[in-house]
Protein backbone atom coordinates (compact mmCIF):
# COMPACT_ATOMS: atom_id res chain seq x y z
CA UNK A 1 0.00 0.00 0.00
CA UNK A 2 1.28 3.46 -0.93
CA UNK A 3 1.54 5.85 2.00
CA UNK A 4 -0.76 8.76 1.23
CA UNK A 5 -1.34 12.07 2.95
CA UNK A 6 -4.09 11.73 5.60
CA UNK A 7 -7.36 13.16 4.33
CA UNK A 8 -11.05 12.82 5.16
CA UNK A 9 -13.14 12.00 2.08
CA UNK A 10 -16.93 12.15 1.64
CA UNK A 11 -18.33 9.60 -0.84
CA UNK A 12 -21.85 10.15 -2.18
CA UNK A 13 -23.67 7.49 -4.27
CA UNK A 14 -27.23 6.14 -4.18
CA UNK A 15 -25.93 2.60 -4.91
CA UNK A 16 -25.03 1.14 -1.47
CA UNK A 17 -22.98 -1.69 -3.00
CA UNK A 18 -20.75 0.58 -5.07
CA UNK A 19 -20.50 3.02 -2.17
CA UNK A 20 -19.24 0.26 0.13
CA UNK A 21 -16.76 -1.07 -2.46
CA UNK A 22 -15.27 2.36 -3.21
CA UNK A 23 -15.11 3.16 0.50
CA UNK A 24 -13.16 -0.04 1.20
CA UNK A 25 -10.71 0.71 -1.64
CA UNK A 26 -10.00 4.21 -0.40
CA UNK A 27 -9.74 3.13 3.24
CA UNK A 28 -7.14 0.52 2.21
CA UNK A 29 -5.15 3.37 0.64
CA UNK A 30 -4.95 5.17 3.96
CA UNK A 31 -7.79 7.68 3.57
CA UNK A 32 -10.44 8.34 6.20
CA UNK A 33 -13.86 7.85 4.57
CA UNK A 34 -17.44 8.84 5.38
CA UNK A 35 -20.33 7.86 3.08
CA UNK A 36 -23.75 9.21 2.15
CA UNK A 37 -26.46 7.57 0.02
CA UNK A 38 -27.96 10.85 -1.25
CA UNK A 39 -27.02 14.42 -1.96
CA UNK A 40 -29.08 15.68 0.98
CA UNK A 41 -27.37 13.26 3.34
CA UNK A 42 -24.01 14.38 1.94
CA UNK A 43 -24.82 18.01 2.78
CA UNK A 44 -25.74 17.00 6.33
CA UNK A 45 -22.35 15.26 6.67
CA UNK A 46 -20.60 18.45 5.51
CA UNK A 47 -22.43 20.45 8.17
CA UNK A 48 -21.23 18.22 10.99
CA UNK A 49 -17.78 17.02 9.83
CA UNK A 50 -14.61 18.59 8.43
CA UNK A 51 -14.16 17.07 4.98
CA UNK A 52 -11.18 17.56 2.65
CA UNK A 53 -12.71 16.25 -0.60
CA UNK A 54 -16.08 15.11 -1.98
CA UNK A 55 -16.45 12.27 -4.52
CA UNK A 56 -20.00 12.01 -5.87
CA UNK A 57 -21.88 9.98 -8.44
CA UNK A 58 -23.47 12.10 -11.18
CA UNK A 59 -26.82 10.33 -11.61
CA UNK A 60 -28.79 10.17 -8.35
CA UNK A 61 -32.47 10.60 -7.50
CA UNK A 62 -33.73 13.90 -6.03
CA UNK A 63 -30.34 15.65 -6.15
CA UNK A 64 -27.78 14.69 -8.79
CA UNK A 65 -24.03 15.20 -8.54
CA UNK A 66 -23.98 18.60 -10.26
CA UNK A 67 -26.80 19.91 -8.07
CA UNK A 68 -24.89 18.65 -5.04
CA UNK A 69 -21.75 20.42 -6.28
CA UNK A 70 -23.70 23.70 -6.59
CA UNK A 71 -25.02 23.38 -3.03
CA UNK A 72 -21.58 22.50 -1.67
CA UNK A 73 -20.07 25.66 -3.20
CA UNK A 74 -22.72 27.74 -1.45
CA UNK A 75 -21.77 26.47 1.99
CA UNK A 76 -18.07 25.63 1.47
CA UNK A 77 -16.66 27.60 -1.48
CA UNK A 78 -13.53 26.02 -2.91
CA UNK A 79 -14.29 22.50 -1.61
CA UNK A 80 -12.86 20.16 -4.31
CA UNK A 81 -15.42 17.80 -5.86
CA UNK A 82 -14.79 14.81 -8.13
CA UNK A 83 -17.78 13.58 -10.16
CA UNK A 84 -18.13 9.91 -11.21
CA UNK A 85 -20.53 8.76 -13.92
CA UNK A 86 -21.37 5.70 -16.01
CA UNK A 87 -22.83 7.92 -18.73
CA UNK A 88 -20.07 10.45 -19.26
CA UNK A 89 -19.32 12.32 -22.45
CA UNK A 90 -16.79 14.96 -23.44
CA UNK A 91 -19.42 17.77 -23.42
CA UNK A 92 -20.52 16.67 -19.92
CA UNK A 93 -16.93 16.73 -18.68
CA UNK A 94 -16.25 20.14 -20.21
CA UNK A 95 -19.44 21.59 -18.74
CA UNK A 96 -18.64 20.17 -15.31
CA UNK A 97 -15.07 21.50 -15.19
CA UNK A 98 -16.19 24.91 -16.47
CA UNK A 99 -18.51 25.12 -13.47
CA UNK A 100 -15.63 24.32 -11.15
CA UNK A 101 -15.78 20.53 -10.66
CA UNK A 102 -12.21 19.43 -10.06
CA UNK A 103 -12.37 16.21 -12.08
CA UNK A 104 -14.96 14.24 -14.07
CA UNK A 105 -14.27 10.46 -14.25
CA UNK A 106 -16.15 7.80 -16.20
CA UNK A 107 -17.12 4.40 -14.73
CA UNK A 108 -15.73 1.78 -14.52
CA UNK A 109 -13.25 3.92 -12.64
CA UNK A 110 -9.59 3.42 -13.39
CA UNK A 111 -7.97 3.06 -9.98
CA UNK A 112 -4.79 4.96 -10.85
CA UNK A 113 -6.76 7.79 -12.49
CA UNK A 114 -8.92 8.13 -9.37
CA UNK A 115 -5.97 8.18 -6.98
CA UNK A 116 -4.19 10.70 -9.19
CA UNK A 117 -7.27 12.95 -9.23
CA UNK A 118 -7.60 12.71 -5.44
CA UNK A 119 -3.93 13.54 -4.87
CA UNK A 120 -4.07 16.54 -7.22
CA UNK A 121 -7.30 17.84 -5.69
CA UNK A 122 -5.88 17.62 -2.17
CA UNK A 123 -2.63 19.24 -3.35
CA UNK A 124 -4.43 22.23 -4.84
CA UNK A 125 -6.89 22.77 -2.00
CA UNK A 126 -4.79 22.14 1.09
CA UNK A 127 -5.58 24.76 3.74
CA UNK A 128 -3.11 27.22 5.13
CA UNK A 129 -1.31 26.35 8.35
CA UNK A 130 -3.25 26.53 11.62
CA UNK A 131 -0.35 28.25 13.43
CA UNK A 132 -1.80 31.71 13.94
CA UNK A 133 1.57 33.46 14.18
CA UNK A 134 2.32 32.58 10.56
CA UNK A 135 -1.15 32.41 9.05
CA UNK A 136 -0.18 34.86 6.30
CA UNK A 137 2.52 32.46 5.05
CA UNK A 138 0.90 29.78 2.91
CA UNK A 139 3.33 26.92 2.36
CA UNK A 140 3.97 23.21 2.40
CA UNK A 141 7.53 23.45 1.05
CA UNK A 142 10.08 21.59 3.22
CA UNK A 143 12.48 24.52 2.64
CA UNK A 144 9.95 27.03 3.96
CA UNK A 145 8.80 24.83 6.83
CA UNK A 146 12.38 24.47 8.06
CA UNK A 147 12.82 28.22 7.73
CA UNK A 148 9.63 28.86 9.69
CA UNK A 149 10.83 26.58 12.46
CA UNK A 150 14.06 28.60 12.64
CA UNK A 151 12.00 31.80 12.67
CA UNK A 152 9.82 30.50 15.51
CA UNK A 153 12.91 29.67 17.58
CA UNK A 154 14.68 32.98 16.95
CA UNK A 155 11.48 34.90 17.73
CA UNK A 156 11.82 33.99 21.40
CA UNK A 157 14.96 36.13 21.79
CA UNK A 158 15.69 39.76 20.94
CA UNK A 159 18.63 39.13 18.59
CA UNK A 160 18.73 41.08 15.33
CA UNK A 161 17.62 39.13 12.26
CA UNK A 162 18.62 39.76 8.64
CA UNK A 163 16.25 38.31 6.05
CA UNK A 164 17.69 37.74 2.58
CA UNK A 165 15.61 37.06 -0.50
CA UNK A 166 14.71 38.23 -3.97
CA UNK A 167 12.18 41.01 -4.47
CA UNK A 168 8.64 39.71 -4.10
CA UNK A 169 9.43 36.69 -1.92
CA UNK A 170 7.55 38.09 1.08
CA UNK A 171 10.31 39.33 3.38
CA UNK A 172 8.03 41.75 5.24
CA UNK A 173 5.38 39.07 5.82
CA UNK A 174 8.12 36.83 7.21
CA UNK A 175 9.33 39.61 9.51
CA UNK A 176 5.75 40.13 10.70
CA UNK A 177 5.51 36.41 11.48
CA UNK A 178 8.65 36.57 13.63
CA UNK A 179 7.15 39.52 15.50
CA UNK A 180 3.87 37.63 15.95
CA UNK A 181 5.70 34.66 17.49
CA UNK A 182 7.76 36.85 19.83
CA UNK A 183 7.02 38.09 23.36
CA UNK A 184 6.69 41.55 21.75
CA UNK A 185 3.61 40.54 19.73
CA UNK A 186 1.28 42.82 21.69
CA UNK A 187 3.43 45.84 20.80
CA UNK A 188 3.74 47.64 17.43
CA UNK A 189 5.26 46.16 14.28
CA UNK A 190 6.52 49.11 12.22
CA UNK A 191 7.99 48.76 8.71
CA UNK A 192 9.90 51.13 6.44
CA UNK A 193 11.55 50.69 3.03
CA UNK A 194 15.03 52.21 3.35
CA UNK A 195 15.46 52.39 -0.42
CA UNK A 196 12.27 54.27 -1.21
CA UNK A 197 12.96 57.64 0.46
CA UNK A 198 15.55 60.42 -0.03
CA UNK A 199 18.24 60.53 2.66
CA UNK A 200 16.93 63.48 4.72
CA UNK A 201 13.34 62.21 4.67
CA UNK A 202 14.47 58.70 5.64
CA UNK A 203 16.48 60.14 8.54
CA UNK A 204 13.48 62.12 9.74
CA UNK A 205 11.19 59.09 9.42
CA UNK A 206 13.52 56.86 11.42
CA UNK A 207 14.74 59.20 14.14
CA UNK A 208 12.09 61.93 14.19
CA UNK A 209 12.80 65.65 14.17
CA UNK A 210 12.53 68.73 16.36
CA UNK A 211 10.64 71.83 15.37
CA UNK A 212 12.78 73.98 13.05
CA UNK A 213 15.19 71.14 12.19
CA UNK A 214 14.67 71.89 8.49
CA UNK A 215 12.36 73.85 6.21
CA UNK A 216 8.84 72.58 6.78
CA UNK A 217 9.53 71.11 10.25
CA UNK A 218 6.84 73.17 11.96
CA UNK A 219 6.49 70.89 14.99
CA UNK A 220 8.22 68.08 16.86
CA UNK A 221 7.67 64.67 15.32
CA UNK A 222 8.58 61.28 16.74
CA UNK A 223 10.36 58.81 14.48
CA UNK A 224 9.66 55.17 13.78
CA UNK A 225 12.06 53.98 16.48
CA UNK A 226 9.80 55.69 19.01
CA UNK A 227 6.64 54.54 17.25
CA UNK A 228 7.85 50.93 17.52
CA UNK A 229 8.68 51.24 21.24
CA UNK A 230 8.45 47.83 22.90
CA UNK A 231 7.85 46.15 19.56
CA UNK A 232 9.66 45.47 16.30
CA UNK A 233 11.09 47.83 13.68
CA UNK A 234 11.45 46.25 10.23
CA UNK A 235 14.07 47.90 8.02
CA UNK A 236 13.32 46.69 4.50
CA UNK A 237 15.96 47.01 1.77
CA UNK A 238 18.60 47.92 4.34
CA UNK A 239 21.25 47.47 1.64
CA UNK A 240 20.00 50.66 -0.03
CA UNK A 241 20.43 52.83 3.07
CA UNK A 242 22.73 55.84 2.37
CA UNK A 243 26.17 55.64 4.01
CA UNK A 244 25.69 58.64 6.39
CA UNK A 245 22.53 57.04 7.79
CA UNK A 246 24.32 53.73 8.26
CA UNK A 247 26.63 55.49 10.74
CA UNK A 248 23.66 56.94 12.66
CA UNK A 249 21.81 53.62 12.67
CA UNK A 250 24.89 51.87 14.05
CA UNK A 251 25.07 54.40 16.89
CA UNK A 252 21.41 53.80 17.74
CA UNK A 253 21.91 50.02 17.81
CA UNK A 254 25.00 50.34 20.01
CA UNK A 255 23.63 52.85 22.50
CA UNK A 256 19.93 51.95 22.37
CA UNK A 257 19.22 55.69 22.17
CA UNK A 258 17.87 57.84 19.36
CA UNK A 259 18.39 61.56 18.82
CA UNK A 260 15.78 63.33 16.63
CA UNK A 261 17.01 65.64 13.87
CA UNK A 262 17.68 69.13 15.24
CA UNK A 263 17.53 67.98 18.86
CA UNK A 264 20.29 67.76 21.49
CA UNK A 265 18.38 65.25 23.61
CA UNK A 266 18.76 61.46 23.43
CA UNK A 267 15.71 59.24 23.90
CA UNK A 268 16.01 55.69 25.27
CA UNK A 269 14.47 53.04 23.03
CA UNK A 270 13.45 49.41 23.45
CA UNK A 271 13.01 48.00 19.95
CA UNK A 272 13.78 44.68 18.27
CA UNK A 273 15.36 45.11 14.81
CA UNK A 274 14.59 42.90 11.83
CA UNK A 275 16.09 43.96 8.51
CA UNK A 276 15.87 42.62 4.97
CA UNK A 277 17.58 42.99 1.63
CA UNK A 278 17.67 41.52 -1.86
CA UNK A 279 21.29 42.65 -2.27
CA UNK A 280 24.48 40.68 -1.59
CA UNK A 281 25.70 42.64 1.44
CA UNK A 282 29.14 40.98 1.69
CA UNK A 283 29.82 42.16 -1.88
CA UNK A 284 28.47 45.61 -0.99
CA UNK A 285 30.87 45.68 1.97
CA UNK A 286 33.78 44.73 -0.29
CA UNK A 287 32.88 47.69 -2.53
CA UNK A 288 32.72 50.04 0.45
CA UNK A 289 28.97 50.58 0.06
CA UNK A 290 27.86 48.96 3.32
CA UNK A 291 29.50 49.21 6.72
CA UNK A 292 30.99 45.98 8.02
CA UNK A 293 30.31 46.88 11.67
CA UNK A 294 26.65 47.59 10.90
CA UNK A 295 26.35 44.34 8.94
CA UNK A 296 27.45 42.27 11.94
CA UNK A 297 25.10 44.19 14.22
CA UNK A 298 22.15 43.39 11.94
CA UNK A 299 23.18 39.88 10.91
CA UNK A 300 23.19 38.05 14.25
CA UNK A 301 20.82 35.51 12.69
CA UNK A 302 20.43 35.23 8.92
CA UNK A 303 17.36 33.73 7.22
CA UNK A 304 17.16 33.29 3.45
CA UNK A 305 13.73 33.04 1.82
CA UNK A 306 13.79 30.84 -1.30
CA UNK A 307 12.51 32.16 -4.61
CA UNK A 308 9.10 30.89 -5.72
CA UNK A 309 10.82 28.91 -8.50
CA UNK A 310 12.68 26.98 -5.78
CA UNK A 311 9.44 25.86 -4.10
CA UNK A 312 7.11 24.98 -6.95
CA UNK A 313 5.16 22.63 -4.67
CA UNK A 314 3.74 25.80 -3.08
CA UNK A 315 2.36 27.21 -6.34
CA UNK A 316 -0.98 25.27 -6.37
CA UNK A 317 -1.46 26.03 -2.69
CA UNK A 318 -0.70 29.73 -3.10
CA UNK A 319 -2.61 30.07 -6.36
CA UNK A 320 -5.81 28.61 -4.92
CA UNK A 321 -5.46 30.61 -1.70
CA UNK A 322 -4.99 33.85 -3.65
CA UNK A 323 -7.81 32.94 -6.05
CA UNK A 324 -10.24 32.50 -3.16
CA UNK A 325 -9.20 35.86 -1.69
CA UNK A 326 -9.49 37.72 -5.00
CA UNK A 327 -12.76 36.05 -5.98
CA UNK A 328 -14.30 36.87 -2.62
CA UNK A 329 -13.47 40.56 -3.14
CA UNK A 330 -14.39 40.87 -6.80
CA UNK A 331 -16.18 37.87 -8.39
CA UNK A 332 -17.54 35.26 -5.96
CA UNK A 333 -18.58 32.95 -8.82
CA UNK A 334 -14.93 32.25 -9.74
CA UNK A 335 -14.03 28.85 -8.28
CA UNK A 336 -10.90 27.25 -9.70
CA UNK A 337 -8.15 27.00 -12.31
CA UNK A 338 -8.42 24.57 -15.19
CA UNK A 339 -5.88 21.73 -15.14
CA UNK A 340 -3.91 23.30 -18.01
CA UNK A 341 -4.00 26.71 -16.33
CA UNK A 342 -2.52 25.24 -13.15
CA UNK A 343 0.16 23.46 -15.19
CA UNK A 344 1.12 26.78 -16.77
CA UNK A 345 1.36 28.41 -13.34
CA UNK A 346 3.55 25.53 -12.18
CA UNK A 347 5.98 25.84 -15.10
CA UNK A 348 6.27 29.66 -15.23
CA UNK A 349 9.63 31.13 -14.20
CA UNK A 350 8.25 33.73 -11.71
CA UNK A 351 11.09 36.28 -11.68
CA UNK A 352 8.83 38.52 -9.57
CA UNK A 353 8.10 35.67 -7.13
CA UNK A 354 4.92 35.71 -5.00
CA UNK A 355 4.26 39.38 -5.79
CA UNK A 356 4.08 38.49 -9.49
CA UNK A 357 1.80 35.51 -8.77
CA UNK A 358 -0.57 37.83 -6.89
CA UNK A 359 -0.69 40.21 -9.86
CA UNK A 360 -1.30 37.39 -12.37
CA UNK A 361 -4.20 35.99 -10.34
CA UNK A 362 -5.74 39.44 -9.81
CA UNK A 363 -5.64 39.95 -13.60
CA UNK A 364 -7.21 36.55 -14.25
CA UNK A 365 -10.07 37.18 -11.83
CA UNK A 366 -10.65 40.66 -13.26
CA UNK A 367 -10.87 39.37 -16.84
CA UNK A 368 -12.71 36.05 -16.46
CA UNK A 369 -16.42 35.54 -17.05
CA UNK A 370 -16.25 31.82 -16.20
CA UNK A 371 -16.09 30.06 -12.82
CA UNK A 372 -12.91 28.35 -14.04
CA UNK A 373 -9.77 30.32 -14.93
CA UNK A 374 -8.62 29.11 -18.35
CA UNK A 375 -5.09 28.38 -19.55
CA UNK A 376 -5.41 31.12 -22.19
CA UNK A 377 -6.22 33.70 -19.52
CA UNK A 378 -3.21 32.71 -17.41
CA UNK A 379 -0.99 32.89 -20.50
CA UNK A 380 -2.33 36.38 -21.28
CA UNK A 381 -1.74 37.55 -17.71
CA UNK A 382 1.82 36.19 -17.68
CA UNK A 383 2.57 37.97 -20.95
CA UNK A 384 1.13 41.17 -19.51
CA UNK A 385 3.45 40.84 -16.52
CA UNK A 386 6.40 41.15 -18.87
CA UNK A 387 5.36 44.76 -19.55
CA UNK A 388 4.23 45.59 -16.00
CA UNK A 389 5.64 48.61 -14.17
CA UNK A 390 8.73 47.91 -12.04
CA UNK A 391 8.88 48.80 -8.36
CA UNK A 392 10.15 52.26 -7.41
CA UNK A 393 13.52 50.85 -6.30
CA UNK A 394 13.87 48.82 -9.52
CA UNK A 395 12.99 51.85 -11.66
CA UNK A 396 15.45 54.07 -9.79
CA UNK A 397 18.18 51.45 -10.14
CA UNK A 398 17.58 51.17 -13.89
CA UNK A 399 17.57 54.97 -14.25
CA UNK A 400 20.91 55.22 -12.42
CA UNK A 401 22.43 52.56 -14.68
CA UNK A 402 21.22 54.24 -17.88
CA UNK A 403 22.28 57.69 -16.61
CA UNK A 404 25.79 56.53 -15.73
CA UNK A 405 26.23 54.80 -19.07
CA UNK A 406 25.15 57.98 -20.87
CA UNK A 407 27.56 60.12 -18.83
CA UNK A 408 30.47 57.81 -19.58
CA UNK A 409 29.58 57.76 -23.27
CA UNK A 410 29.45 61.59 -23.41
CA UNK A 411 32.71 62.01 -21.48
CA UNK A 412 34.41 59.07 -23.23
CA UNK A 413 35.17 57.47 -19.87
CA UNK A 414 36.62 60.57 -18.20
CA UNK A 415 35.61 60.00 -14.57
CA UNK A 416 36.54 63.49 -13.36
CA UNK A 417 34.42 65.12 -16.06
CA UNK A 418 31.53 62.68 -15.58
CA UNK A 419 31.53 63.14 -11.79
CA UNK A 420 31.46 66.92 -12.21
CA UNK A 421 28.48 66.68 -14.60
CA UNK A 422 26.66 64.43 -12.10
CA UNK A 423 27.36 66.80 -9.20
CA UNK A 424 29.33 64.15 -7.30
CA UNK A 425 32.92 63.92 -6.13
CA UNK A 426 35.18 61.26 -7.65
CA UNK A 427 34.91 58.91 -4.64
CA UNK A 428 31.11 58.93 -4.69
CA UNK A 429 31.08 58.52 -8.46
CA UNK A 430 33.41 55.51 -8.33
CA UNK A 431 31.09 53.92 -5.75
CA UNK A 432 28.15 54.42 -8.12
CA UNK A 433 30.10 52.80 -10.96
CA UNK A 434 31.05 49.90 -8.70
CA UNK A 435 27.45 49.39 -7.57
CA UNK A 436 26.33 49.06 -11.17
CA UNK A 437 29.43 47.07 -12.19
CA UNK A 438 30.51 49.67 -14.75
CA UNK A 439 34.14 50.22 -15.81
CA UNK A 440 35.00 53.69 -17.16
CA UNK A 441 37.78 52.15 -19.28
CA UNK A 442 35.13 50.40 -21.40
CA UNK A 443 33.96 53.83 -22.62
CA UNK A 444 37.34 55.27 -23.54
CA UNK A 445 38.18 55.63 -27.21
UniProtKB/TrEMBL annotation:
One of its GO terms (molecular function) is DNA binding. PROSITE patterns: RESPONSE_REGULATORY, SIGMA54_INTERACT_1, SIGMA54_INTERACT_2, SIGMA54_INTERACT_3, SIGMA54_INTERACT_4. One of its GO terms (biological process) is phosphorelay signal transduction system. Residues 137-366 form the Sigma-54 factor interaction domain. Transmembrane segments: none annotated. InterPro entries: AAA+_ATPase, AAA_lid_NorR, CheY-like_superfamily, Homeodomain-like_sf, P-loop_NTPase, Sig_transdc_resp-reg_receiver, Sigma_54_int, Sigma_54_int_dom_ATP-bd_1. It comes from the Bacteria. The modification 4-aspartylphosphate is found at residue 57. Residues 8-122 form the Response regulatory domain. The keyword Thylakoid does not apply. Keywords: ATP-binding, DNA-binding, Nucleotide-binding, Phosphoprotein, Transcription, Transcription regulation, Two-component regulatory system. This is Two-component system response regulator GlrR. It comes from Salmonella enterica (Salmonella choleraesuis).
Amino acid sequence: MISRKPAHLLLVDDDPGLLKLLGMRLTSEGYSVVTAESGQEGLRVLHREKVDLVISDLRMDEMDGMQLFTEIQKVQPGMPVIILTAHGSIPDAVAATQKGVFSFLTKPIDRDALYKAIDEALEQSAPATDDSWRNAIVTRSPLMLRLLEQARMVAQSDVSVLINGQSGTGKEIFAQAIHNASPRNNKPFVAINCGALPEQLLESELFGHARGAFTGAVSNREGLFQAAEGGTLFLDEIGDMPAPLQVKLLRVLQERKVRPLGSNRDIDIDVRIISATHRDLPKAMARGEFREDLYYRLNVVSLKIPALAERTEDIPLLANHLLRQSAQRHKPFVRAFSTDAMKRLMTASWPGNVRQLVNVIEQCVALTSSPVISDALVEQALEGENTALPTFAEARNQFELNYLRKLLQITKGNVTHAARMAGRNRTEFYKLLSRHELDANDFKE
